[in-house]
Each structure stands twice: as structure tokens, then as C-alpha cells.
Design brief:
mainly alpha, MetI-like fold, 0% strand, globular
Length: 270
């Protein structure tokens, strides 16, 4: 690479670092540690943080339970309409958050397509904590499916063929061979979907509202504080930043993946 290319690369890299790091550093230096500790003692902040952690964990569990079979199916199967299904799954990535909230209301609201059926079963989603979980899962699902599908698709076929020649049941092949090999991608997808759920704002406030202790998550608390107390909004933002940073660091530093084991051959029964 010539001198001009090196200089251009350095300038682009410096600009990227400034774009990504400067806003985060600005948040951290603005809040004294004592002020941050004081905010931790605020019952409203504690309630919002607790609700955020509970709902984001629950929505991530929903995402994994529904997204893992879909990711496996998309990674291992070819069928007519596959591209259309992939577009449908990825659509929440580009959908404006408020539009996502309105769509959820149109589907699960009292007058929605499924709302009356759910109401007859005693299930009410809008403006409830369960509604927060649904909104978070809706916007976070594509992150998990996309990363997990890519990891499953990259598993070398020879490992699966080896297990198949040993008459290993398909379920055991998936759990003990395919899933461990794709575990880094699965964990990355889980982290991204959890982070997206934790930071969800637009769909949540539109579909579930902003009721303290019920639907007011940390992003909504930041929005409310921003209207009257900038320092409080910055402090709450730093809390979310530190929480997200801690989780991502743990995932980066922790060993990824599980040991791959090929079961012994299953002998046919007589």
C-alpha cells in the first residue's frame, strides 16, 4: 500500500473511532460516580431497570425458542418461497419502531386480527408487561435468526455425514454435533437480540405504553427524564451503557462453543 493509501486508511479509521467512541466517552465523563450511585438508589430507576432485565431476558428466551428451529430449517432446507420467508423474518430490521408498534396493535389489540380471540382466552397484550415482551421479541427476532442460521449453514457436512453413518438419530446429530459447532454464532445472535430487546423503545411505547412498574423500561425512563432533567437522562443512559458493555465483554471473553461429541453407533435391535 502506498503512502496515500495508508494515510487515507488512517484517516478513515480515526473518523470511525471518533464516530463510535466519542458519544460513549461523552456520556461516561459527564456523570460523576457519586451521581451514578445516587441514581441507583432511586426506586423508579430500580423498577425500570428490573423491568428491563426481566422483559429482555424473557423476550430473548422467546426468540431462542422460536428462532432456533427457524434458523435450522432455513440453514438446511431449500423450498419454494424461502426467499419470501427470509424477507418476512428480516423485515423488523428495517421497519420503523413506531410502525412495528402500530402493527402489533393491529394484530393483538382489542380490535386486532387476533386480539378478540386472545381476549376470549383471557390474554391481554397491549399496555401490559407481556406486551413489552412481545414487542421486544418482535424486533429482536431477526438478529438471532440471521446469526444462528449463518452459523448452522457453515457447519461442514462431513461431520454430519460421519454421525449419520453411525446411525445417530437426527435429533442427536443436531444437539451433539451441529449445535456445538455453531455455538459461537448462536451466542452472538443471542447477545445481539438481547441488546436489541434491552434498548427497544418505539414499538414498546406504542404497543405497551409507558406505565411505571408495568411497562416503563429503562429506554422509556430515559425518554421521560430527558424532557425535564438532562442529568438524570444521562445517568440512566450510562447505566444502560455499562450493563450492555458488561454483557458483551463477558460473551467476548468467555469460551465460545461446546465440545463436539459423535455418539457411538446405534446397533439395530433384533
Amino acid at each position: 500500500m502506498d503512502a496515500a493509501g495508508t494515510i487515507g486508511l488512517a484517516v478513515a479509521g480515526l473518523a470511525l473511532v471518533c464516530l463510535l467512541a466519542l458519544p460513549l466517552v461523552s456520556l461516561l465523563v459527564r456523570v460523576p460516580p457519586g451521581a451514578l450511585l445516587e441514581r441507583w438508589r432511586d426506586p423508579a430507576v430500580v423498577n425500570a431497570l428490573r423491568l428491563s432485565l426481566v422483559t429482555s431476558a424473557a423476550s430473548t428466551a422467546v426468540v431462542i425458542a422460536l428462532g432456533l428451529p427457524a434458523a435450522w430449517f432455513l440453514a438446511t432446507t431449500t423450498f419454494p418461497g424461502k426467499r419470501l420467508l427470509e424477507v418476512l423474518i428480516d423485515l423488523p430490521l428495517v421497519l420503523p419502531p413506531t410502525v412495528a408498534g402500530v402493527a402489533l396493535l393491529a394484530a393483538f389489540g382489542r380490535a386486532g386480527l387476533a386480539g378478540s380471540t386472545l381476549a376470549a382466552l383471557g390474554v391481554h397484550l397491549p399496555f401490559t408487561t407481556l406486551g413489552v415482551i412481545v414487542a421486544q421479541a418482535f424486533v429482536a427476532m431477526p438478529f438471532f435468526i440471521g446469526a444462528t442460521r449463518a452459523g448452522l449453514a457453515e457447519v461442514e457436512q462431513r461431520y454430519l455425514d460421519t454421525a449419520a453413518t453411525l446411525r445417530t438419530p437426527p435429533g442427536a446429530v443436531f444437539l451433539r454435533v451441529m449445535l456445538p459447532l455453531a455455538m459461537p454464532s448462536l451466542l452472538a445472535g443471542t447477545a445481539m437480540s438481547w441488546a436489541r430487546a434491552l434498548g427497544e423503545f418505539g414499538a414498546t411505547i406504542t404497543f405497551a405504553g409507558n406505565m411505571p412498574g408495568i411497562t416503563q423500561t429503562m429506554p422509556l425512563a430515559v425518554y421521560i427524564a430527558l424532557q425535564s432533567d438532562l442529568d438524570a437522562a444521562v445517568a440512566l443512559s450510562v447505566m444502560l451503557l455499562l450493563l450492555s458493555l458488561a454483557v458483551l465483554l463477558v460473551l467476548r471473553l468467555a469460551p465460545l462453543g461446546l465440545p463436539v461429541t459423535v455418539p457411538r453407533a446405534h446397533r439395530p435391535t433384533r
